[in-house]
Amino acid sequence: MIITKSKGLRGEVTVPGDKSISHRSVMFGSIAKGTTEILHYLQGADCLSTISCFQKMGVAIENRGDTVIVHGKGLRGLTRPDSALDCGNSGTTTRLISGILAAQDFHVVLTGDASIQKRPMNRIIEPLTLMGAQIHSSRDNGCAPLEITGRPLRGISYTSKVASAQVKSAVLLAGLYADGETSVTEPYLSRNHSEVMLRYFGADVRTEGTTALIRPAAELEGRQIRVPGDISSASYFICAGLMVPNSEILIRNVGINPTRDGILRVAKAMGGHITLLDRQSGSGEPTADILVSSSALRGTVIEGALIPTLIDELPMIAAMACLAHGETVIRDAAELKVKESNRLEVMVRCLTAMGAHVTETGDGMIIRGGKPLHGAVIDCCLDHRIAMTFAVAGLCADGETEILGGECVNISYPGFYEDLWKLMRQC
Ligand code: S3P
Questions:
Q1: DSSP string, 5-47
Q2: Domains (ranges, CATH) in the chain?
Q3: Most buried pick, 10, 80, 194, 226, via CB within 10 A?
Q4: Which of 261, 312, 383, 419 is catalytic?
Q5: Is the CB of 312 under 6 A from ligand 1?
């Protein structure tokens, strides 16, 4: 993928459905009774992995493109797959499905691509083992492949060291099957889509501060889900609209759940022109249209409780900070090291290659903004968010930016480049 400097971006874009909500709608629909109809399902590779895992466990799932119909089998209706479940590149599939498999009466092997086989799984192995599940890493390295044999589970009160919705959700899903209440406490509140959707499907879930609690369920009920546009996918256009001179972009129907909206807060703190229009709140997940235009940006500090609300947007924010006046500090973000790639290391290396002044710290980075960016060859390490970040950075750089392996955007945003080109053509 070759990107050159843009003269401006104008027009409207509707981003694909939210990745986190799409995964959950198929998972919860599969273990619910009755039919779940999912509108605006994300057709990215990660969410297709989730569909195929549940199909292999006997769930009839019709993928009609934008709409997906799941014929739920009930909490105890999954059947043993005849081979390993392949989670592809998807951490959400691997970790959430483990919570469900921990309680099934069969043995399963969970695997995935080279990236997934390097990502830490002890964070779910530990609590699920405490609940009574038999789960271990085949190579004994704390990573996938995972071998899981379901067992009768007991409710636990678990305190997680990391603010992670994937850990929280795995434990809550296992808690559906436990013999008593289960709770998960995290250092900061992570995205709450599981709590919102499980409640919508009839589960007894409540939240007290950064603790989520669930009681075992007899059954869940299938529902209709309208998946909002993914704010993580929208973030590339939000930042592009702010960064590229002579731009104005309207991004339609974006999920603005407060546990995900850190990008909006940070962009405003940096002086970005952002207006939210047509706010709606269907099925517990609020949405809005987001209007952005070119802005003079200034540096900011991003830390603490804000981090989980924008964890996937940090690569894009770091690139935006290179164009801002003054210093931006990102701290408390060590989780970036264990995403689809080591995003801390990759971002510092690639931004430096484009001429930015960036220093890696143990748990984040310091960016001294204002140095002009120039094109470079970017190895995105097959990380979809790195590829999209540098497509946007390339729009603000002199010369050509070449992204190697840029087709990996298909993981979360098939059609990303086409949507970007459409906005460029309006200028
Ligand atoms: C996700 C949670 C986040 C996020 C990931 C999706 C989810 O991961 O980075 O892209 O759907 O629960 P962690 O929970 O590990 O922080």
A1: --S--EEEEEPPBPHHHHHHHHHHHHTSEEEEEEES---SHHH
A2: 2-16+228-425 (3.65.10.10), 19-226 (3.65.10.10)
A3: 194
A4: 312
A5: yes
